[in-house]
Amino acid sequence: MVADQGIVGSGVGRDSDPEETAEWIESFDQLIDQRGSDRARDVLGRLLARAGGRSVGLPSVVTTDYVNSIPVDEEPEFPGDEEIERKYRAWMRWNAAVMVHRAQRPEIGVGGHISTYAGAATLYEVGFNHFFKGKDHPSGGDQVFFQGHASPGMYARAFLEGRLTEEDLDGFRQEKSKAGHALSSYPHPRLMPEFWEFPTVSMGIGPMNAIYQAQSNRYLQNRGLKDTSDQQVWAFLGDGEMDEPESRGLLQLAANENLDNLNFVINCNLQRLDGPVRGNGKIMQELEAFFRGAGWNVIKVVWGREWDDLLAKDTTGDLVKIMNETADGDYQTYKAESGGFVRDHFFGKTPATKDLVADMEDAQVWGLKRGGHDYRKVYAAYKAATEFKGKPTVILAKTVKGYGLGSHFEGRNATHQMKKLTLQDLKDFRDHLRIPIPDEALEADLYNAPYYHPGPDSPEIKYLLDRRRTLGGFVPERRTEAAALELPGDKAYEVANRGSGKQQAATTMAFVRLLKDLMREKGLGSRIVPIVPDESRTFGMDAFFPTAKIYNPKGQNYLSVDRELVLAYKESIQGQILHAGINEAGSVAAFTAAGTAYATQGEPLIPIYVFYSMFGFQRTGDSFWAAGDQMTRGFIIGATAGRTTLTGEGLQHADGHSPILASTNPAVITYDPAYGYELGIIMRAGLERMYGANSDDRNVMYYLTVYNEPIIQPPLPAGLDADAVVRGVYRLKPGNDDGGRPKAQILASGVAVPWALEAQELLADHWGVSADVWSVTSWTELRRDALAAEEEAFLNPDAEARVPFVTQQLGDAPGPIVAVTDYMKAVPDQIRQFLPQDFATLGADGFGFSDTRAAARRYFKIDPASVVVRTLQLLAKRGEVDADAPRQAIEKYALLTLP
Predict the structure, then answer these.
(1) 171-195, pLDDT tens digit by residue?
(2) What EC number(s) are associated with this protein in UniProt (predicted)?
(3) What is the pTM for the complete model shown?
């Protein structure tokens, strides 16, 4: 059943005095006619306020009638040349469709999407011609998040602009075979780093990132880093995409922070990928209610100008009533049928509405456009959105998917999957768009239909380019020229290098101390953006509150309960910390916006996102892929890492696999440091790689796992090879080799390194075994280096093969290898194939649980005693210790009993 819309369906019952009601309505109509819509709104607002003051209960009105939000009398004058813009918009729609069609020739068949851009062309072109500011604009330019499936339209525009050639268009989705003349399938900055700025085709991530991009712009403004006051963020989305929880879940942030620099444009073609979004309902009404409830300004663009006269003549209200009650599934069907069908099934529902179109031909009925295809209506909506203050705006624009592509495409359920056109489709589409291409050119080769370009000297192209010059250059465009950062010297890392003395400190605390010193560095410190969900106190970062302060564009307008405390909770408009609340998805979006400010704003920021390690790549891994696509730079800190280190929290919090998940993202450099000095070395290397003047490989993110288990943090060892720490492994402590003892190698990372050192002592004292202990700072980087060496040898069989770093370090080490971590066995097993020794792995496979650390480590068999027993087993197998030694060790350490 279709929900009732407007005041009629919002709780108003039977009218007890229709005559009096008619008089009120007549008076209200006269008010609008004589004083205009603004005065009518003012009077209504005052009446509603008075009703509230008199305790008169009112129905909640969260939707309006299914008509345009902007009255005809308030529509601004369209400033462009409608005919010229219509012409080249048609050329773009043709070229976009032909590009995808040509990519479907039998020997290629790479797919693509025709229908999305066909239906959304007007929405984009009004923006391109009149609103989207380029990077040469005095404002610094807008940020535009394009709907991923509409990418062919952006390529078609760039072709007319002279930025792309026919050869480029023919390289669509052939990025390696047509290298140099290739176009990515969707907006992928990493694949087209000078063209695309934002990746958007991961459904739901685009809306999130657009919201936090708008917040980031205000953050830069409020902290005095850049004037972004005249910038707008535009996000183009599909109505089906709004079913994603990520698409809707963060709307409140935009409203809470009054981000009136943000505009969502939702292409309401009423269709998902397979069929209608709300066949039995009304998605535009649903979205209106949702956004209005979230505190957004809502503008609906439902009907084109051809409907204006009909609505003006609708004195009975029957037409609006039918519009309100017609289900989306029926609206979709109408556009797949004919004018006669619409006359009978839509207007024919009442005598009054049937009379409205009695004098119209079927072709005229069919020509009643939807609002998203009318540039005047769209222009009015965009202008209203950019001028609205105090709230973000959503524009709900009704369109037809596959608009103009012919009866096989328009509004069909399968239109999203349709990649090619028949000869008749091409001819019909050409005729509809009035493209000057003869039949012979289409008939000569079905899969080689020609592109159309009138030449750079045509008045249309000159007009198009002039519009872009006026608005500040081409869009989309990505630039990476950013202000240089002065990186800190040795002094900034002293606190990490000197250790903790006699006090115990977890690596989380060592990291926080290091971060505090980095934030004090002149020039660099103000560029650091700490990002934390609602766990700052867990990580010891509440010490930052009084000095760095929490960013809040409204400041702190309440009396803080802890105002007298040293570590008081302090919010400020100039605050440095982004505190996202219980919101990992929003935190990653904030991380992405800050980590790409070097490109979007020419202002480098250093985001440092700290979170429960379990909630990173498991919960928000797709967002990190989008961040990698956007070439985000920054540090990702997985705190309280490990499967047995936070065992009191239980299964959900016990991270035993984040390094494996992180390793699947090619843009993420993963480290599992054991000590504060390792953290310092790694972060220094990360800053130099991502932000240093001499780096040629900047577009990475560093993932560092840190733990909440206090230990004595040792000072930086004399003569330590920092390069080995960065590359992934170094020998931390050699064993005692006197007397020709059996040898073994113990590899450990993170919180497991102290277990390895304890096992080293037990092996020496109880079993006469000399074991070297190695700190593996990055299993993943060791594997990547080794795989790269294999690939080099594979492709260069005549050259001397490069020896991987892990093999250089450990290949000749005597004895078997035992690797232990607080993660699943797959983490250290990443390097197993590159070492010739007998290799055993101890890890925490399976689900986590709540217990003591000692009990959990004994259960998973990763504690020092387990390391000893496994080492003895490997040595016994080699005949280097007594064959009964492993059994004796199991009994000695009660290995089968939990402590």
Answers:
(1) 999 999 999 999 999 999 999 999 9
(2) 1.2.4.1
(3) 0.93
